[in-house]
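User: Sequence in, structure out. Go.
Assistant: Echoing your sequence, followed by the structure tokens.
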Amino acid sequence: MTTVTTSTSEPLDSLAAPPPSFRVVRRLLRRPVAVVAILLILFIYIIGLLAPLIAPYEFDKTDLAHTFAGPSSEHLLGTDRLGRDVLSRIMWSAQTTVIISGLSIIAGSLILGVSLGLISGYVRGWVDNLIMRAADALQAVPTFLLLLIINATMKDRARSVFTDVEDITGIGGIVKSGAPSFFLLTIAFSIFGWVGMARLVRSQVLSLREAEYVTAARAMGSSTPRVLFRHLLPQLTSLVVVTITITLGAVAALEVGLTFLNVGIQEGHASFGIMITQYAGITSIRAHPMLILYPCVVVAVLVLSFNLLGDALTDILSPRRR
């Protein structure tokens, strides 16, 4: 008769250990397309994060003495019809993309999506039905319609709340920075963003919940949160990383599209959508096509880079393709 004893949880934890990150990075660096995509994403994101420090001018600073100026040492990409520096506007717009996409992914996909997916797949029963029916209800509502409703009903309230925050804290410029628009878009994207992630995580947890290491963890008295986040979540790292990578590009494109349709960031604040809207006139395109080309190229490069990186991660992390 053989007796098996378990004095510590180390063997159990090793069973639930995620794939070595170093090996994934090494495989990723062997793919030139993935490396280029990473460098482009980092470049755009760093430019956006450092915009307050490195941007030569403010987003809407005008100089009517230098309208439609060509590239020069003072304006590397020239100016528009109001003498606004195009390069500075691109930098500030990149910051908006970084803020909204980052907050939306954290609040929607990571906090709500992963947590609800874990709970739904592990607990099952009426909890699973409740979460999945809520997901079905959200998917039945067109994204654009909900964003219109949120923008129409909450825009003034959000501005009033942030104005009160300025008065209470004494910190000026919060409303001018576009924080109310950022807040509303983040809320709207998060409401929809968790659904896809939750469904993917749930489908994986349903198959993993009966695994030996999960059964052993329950037998040893591990709490439900420990089972979910210590033993199940590490097994979903590959899925979460790939999904977030692709979603970041989708959120960036969605923000630009909604702003272009006057539903996202409001006029006067930094956004690629605002720039494209202002430069999209027929006369402007014919006379100065580069004005609209600059922001469009940056958005296209960012979205394409995220998609290429997501494809590379899928090939590397998929067990069937290793």
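User: And one key feature?
Assistant: Residues 77 and 87 are 6 Å apart (CA to CA).
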